[in-house]
Write a structure and sequence with these properties.
The complex is a heterodimer of chains A (186) and B (185). Helices cover 22% and strands 29% of the residues of chain A. In chain A, the strands form 3 sheets. In chain A, strands 3-9-5-6 form a 4-stranded antiparallel beta sheet, with helices on one face. A 4-stranded mixed beta sheet of chain A has the order 8-7-4-10, with no helix packed on it. In chain A, strand 1 and strand 2 form a beta hairpin. Chain B is 35% helix and 31% strand. In chain B, the strands form 2 sheets. A 5-stranded antiparallel beta sheet of chain B has the order 1-2-8-4-5, sandwiched between helices. The longest helix of chain B has 42 residues. About 5% of the residues of chain B have low confidence. The chains are: A alpha+beta (186), B alpha+beta (185). Chains A and B meet through helix 1 and helix 2 of A and helix 1, strand 4, strand 5 and strand 8 of B.
Amino acid sequence: MNPSVRFAVSVLVGVTVGIVSARYMTTEQSPFFTEQYGNWNNWPVAGNPANNPYTQAKFIANGQLPEHFSEVLTFYRNQDDEGDKLTEDCTYLMSINRPTARRWSISLTGNSGGNPQLMTQDDIISMGEKVTVVLSASPQPGNWLRMSNADDPRVVFRLYDGDTITAQGPTGGTLGLPSLTRVSCS
Amino acid sequence: MTSTRSFWALFTVLTAVAAHLCYILFVPPQQFQTKLDAIHTENGINKLTLAAPGTAAASIAEYPGELIYAVCLFDLSTGPLRINARVPEQYWALEVYNTRGGTIYTLNDKQAPRRQFSLYLYDDDPDPEAIVNAANSVGSSINSITVLTGTQTGIVVIRSAAANQLETARSAEALQNTSCSLATS
């Protein structure tokens, strides 16, 4: 092969692999800089001035200024408990023991650009310590987050008072992150 | 033949590593700087503005359904910055960031000394003893806090609870009575 062609091919392949790998490592699915609690992901050093360039890149590439992890712990997931991708064709049940954090929220976002569906601790209807929320495209009794128009749905769970929670021990069991089970699909 | 192949394989790998590092180190900061430039153009510098929908500042409001955001781009090249904060009796957090998105300082409603306080940002140490005293006094009776940023430019973001109408009204009123300006002005 002609050396100049080899050079061009090598540069093209190298640049493509370099950029694609860089973009992948700043996604929420990256296993390198996220902490995983079951199917929940968290960027553990968000907002830390000493954080790694990948965590910084993840947030600022989207124009976001991450809240310091001592303020808010934010967890993301786009899979149910079985590991299947969330889809608006299915109905899901999220359940959790009422968090001890003074504020918390559950929101449902997607790539369609619509407003995220949000539920905070004040919106939750619950008689006891157990909180359940149904994620579905059709209206549901009780706590309901609408899934329609949510292309590539993603659930975001935020716990304020990150410093207090972290001091208690940031493990999945201690934090008591919500489970998300598929109930039915259309 | 084998050495030629090895050379091009190594060249490809090194090109990939260089492209990867260049992307991570330069592209996101540049994208972010573009956002900061848009906020600067719209709101100016050393001035607090509410991140209302449709404004350039709203681009940093990641959770607008549960928080109200106010931002102040700062430039300390001509002197320290003073934030006269009047904060609501509910959740809020103030964070100072450098232009690469790293947190320099954070303060929330549980840590703040009072509902009204002044926060001074210096890029360099104006009086080491005074700062030690101030730091030791945070949480007691003082209403003035001094922060060394270590950088001349950055952004202050105040996030205040807005999960319902009452919280939103309280936050909006408090932030409208909060200012950000050069301490010398």
